[in-house]
């Protein structure tokens, strides 16, 4: 009997000391990012010996997989949530509200308010943003100098950008073909939404329906169409045989482009000889504007390990964990104190991105963003190419998007 009792005690001790496993899911990304995240998670486990993190990469159809698992009560304890997808999930009662876990020591006020607001619903916070990027103007220093511009004086208004673009558009070989366009345009809604609001338009109305085809909304988009069609000083990536805005800029096909912070490490690594600078996005209608893209850590409401899940979230979005995560510069910290500690507010290349976060438009489009985004992208490209008038294209796009939304409600 003594031996049996001793075995029971050993079993109980093992049970008590066995670490809790918290499941974390995210999407696939750059191998360097994956390696860094695994190191940060290892650091977390070192400080929390009672918790193990099982990290899973969902490389394809991320949100479809997450939604399916949430319905089947098989979702991870903690997972990435893009601000674009947040309004729908926050309305479905599947996320744990984080308010009750947040203590004064966590210092919520340290976060950029514009980013926290993207994950608020019914006065509750459902996600803590792990990093972000706004958009900024990238410009080629050598192209500026060759045209007679000072690279210390980038365009600050959209009218100036168009004027610069005309002079930066050159036929280097005098063969009738444009070798360098002044500006690289990316027609997707994610890069055009702030232009819709510049003259008082809105992307969606208070009921979540597409509303971008208003007269005010079209004014901002008309600037893009005029530059592309009439002035011919801008080009899409398909016009110059590249795969992205960063690539057409890096290859010298365009002298200016509006891109995210992620373009900085890409350009430095892929085009090390390129001399470039960044600036805030030029104003439109005397208003500053840009987009902000952010991703949060959220907790599954059905998690069986909520306290441990919170410890993971609070470490990853706390000052120490965030400094480790954003210290290499490929992502910007959502905490103001971390950005200052890392010197990003003084960094010539990154400071324009930080400057834009207060006035940026969050990349959100109601509860059914895919319907709005896909419809806009298809029709706006047709307007840009001159296949149909802008007003007609946008009205058709809006009608199509709202038809899809009504079918999903």
From TrEMBL:
Transmembrane segments: none annotated. It comes from Chlorogloeopsis fritschii PCC 6912. The keyword Signal applies. Keywords: Signal, Transport. GO terms for biological process: maltodextrin transmembrane transport; maltose transport. GO terms for cellular component: ATP-binding cassette (ABC) transporter complex, substrate-binding subunit-containing. One of its GO terms (molecular function) is maltose binding. This is ABC transporter substrate-binding protein. Belongs to the bacterial solute-binding protein 1 family. InterPro entries: SBP. The keyword Thylakoid does not apply.
């Amino acid at each position: 009997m003594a031996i049996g009792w001793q075995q029971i005690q050993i079993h109980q001790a093992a049970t008590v000391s066995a670490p809790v496993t918290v499941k974390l899911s995210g999407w696939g990304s750059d191998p360097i990012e994956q390696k860094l995240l695994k190191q940060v998670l290892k650091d977390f486990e070192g400080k929390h010996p009672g918790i193990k993190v099982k990290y899973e990469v969902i490389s394809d159809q991320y949100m479809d997989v997450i939604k399916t698992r949430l319905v089947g009560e098989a979702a991870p304890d903690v997972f990435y949530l893009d601000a674009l997808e947040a309004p729908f999930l926050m309305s479905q009662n599947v996320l744990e509200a984080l308010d009750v876990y947040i203590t004064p020591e966590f210092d919520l006020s340290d976060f950029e308010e514009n980013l926290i607001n993207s994950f608020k619903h019914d006065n509750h916070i459902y996600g803590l943003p792990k990093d972000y990027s706004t958009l900024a103007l990238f410009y080629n220093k050598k192209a500026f100098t060759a045209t007679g511009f000072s690279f210390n004086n980038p365009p600050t208004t959209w009218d100036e950008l168009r004027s610069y673009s005309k002079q930066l558009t050159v036929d280097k070989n005098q063969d009738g073909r444009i070798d360098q366009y002044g500006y690289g345009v990316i027609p997707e809604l994610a890069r055009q939404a702030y232009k819709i609001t510049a003259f008082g338009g809105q992307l969606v109305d208070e009921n979540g329906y597409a509303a971008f085809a208003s007269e005010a909304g079209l004014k901002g988009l008309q600037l893009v169409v005029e530059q592309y069609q009439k002035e011919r000083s801008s080009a899409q990536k398909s016009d110059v045989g590249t795969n992205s805005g960063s690539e057409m800029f890096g290859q010298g096909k365009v002298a200016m482009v509006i891109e995210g912070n992620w373009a900085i490490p890409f350009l430095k690594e892929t085009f090390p000889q390129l001399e470039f600078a960044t600036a805030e996005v030029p104003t439109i209608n005397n208003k500053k504007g840009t987009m902000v893209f952010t991703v949060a850590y959220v907790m599954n409401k059905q998690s069986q390990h909520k306290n441990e899940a919170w410890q993971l979230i609070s470490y990853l979005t706390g000052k120490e964990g965030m400094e480790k995560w954003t210290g290499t510069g490929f992502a910007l910290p959502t905490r103001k104190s971390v950005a200052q500690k890392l010197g990003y507010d003084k960094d010539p290349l990154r400071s324009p991105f930080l400057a834009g976060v207060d006035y940026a438009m969050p990349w959100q489009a109601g509860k059914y963003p895919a319907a709005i985004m896909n419809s806009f992208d298809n029709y706006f490209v047709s307007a840009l190419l001159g296949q149909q008038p802008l007003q007609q294209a946008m009205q058709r796009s809006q009608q199509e998007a709202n038809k899809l939304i009504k079918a999903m409600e």
